[in-house]
Task: inverse folding
């Protein structure tokens, strides 16, 4: 695997995905490099899997240049090294023995990587889903998630419930003392879901920050 990427783009990606990285091996970032799709970064903390895609260009400037496609696990040290580089294009090459070489101008570094797969990341297979704007999703979550319980005694109450009937899509949460519900007059084909409120709110916050 070999590519060139804007250093500022890489640091922006790390900043966005950092909250969803776990501990130990799950601190690593899975990077898939493909000439058709560009770059796909995936991280997980065991509960949330966050995927960030980077296109080859923004229509005017080249952001990524792929010389050899492939995939690898980026260790935490990779982020530390690239953060110290200046803005501009830098090259990243996967060498033998899972070493990762980083170059920019006269500066170069080799970082020891690891072999294997990142645990906790399921195969990326799309099933049935729905499409909501960030604004609508934010409204649904922020007006309900605060009522969810933070107690472990009844885990189901720590979740936000999502379900649809023939007339509307409803989002509900309760800690058994208070109940919050928000609905939109749009039936959506989605099975009933219970999603951990705290983690859902974190994902929504990340989406808002991208706007």
Result:
């Amino acid at each position: 695997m070999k590519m060139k990427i804007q250093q500022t783009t890489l640091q922006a990606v790390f900043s966005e995905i950092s909250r969803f990285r776990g501990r130990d091996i799950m601190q690593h970032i899975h990077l898939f490099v493909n000439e058709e799709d560009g770059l796909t970064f995936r991280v997980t903390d065991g509960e949330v899997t966050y995927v960030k895609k980077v296109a080859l260009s923004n229509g005017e400037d080249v952001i990524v240049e792929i010389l050899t496609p492939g995939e690898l696990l980026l260790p935490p040290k990779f982020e530390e090294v690239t953060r110290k580089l200046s803005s501009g294009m830098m090259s990243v090459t996967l060498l033998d023995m899972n070493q990762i070489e980083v170059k920019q101008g006269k500066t170069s570094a080799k970082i020891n990587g690891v072999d294997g797969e990142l645990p906790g990341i399921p195969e990326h297979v799309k099933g049935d889903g729905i499409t909501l704007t960030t604004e609508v999703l934010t409204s649904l979550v922020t007006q309900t998630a605060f009522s969810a319980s933070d107690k472990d005694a009844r885990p189901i109450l720590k979740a936000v419930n999502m379900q649809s009937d023939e007339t509307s899509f409803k989002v509900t949460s309760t800690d058994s003392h208070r109940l919050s519900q928000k609905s939109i007059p749009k039936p959506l084909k989605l099975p009933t879901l219970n999603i951990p409120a705290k983690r859902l709110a974190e994902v929504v916050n990340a989406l808002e920050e991208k706007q």
Observations:
- The domain at 2-112 is CATH 3.10.150.10 (DNA Polymerase III; Chain A, domain 2).
- The chain is about 20% helix and 35% strand.
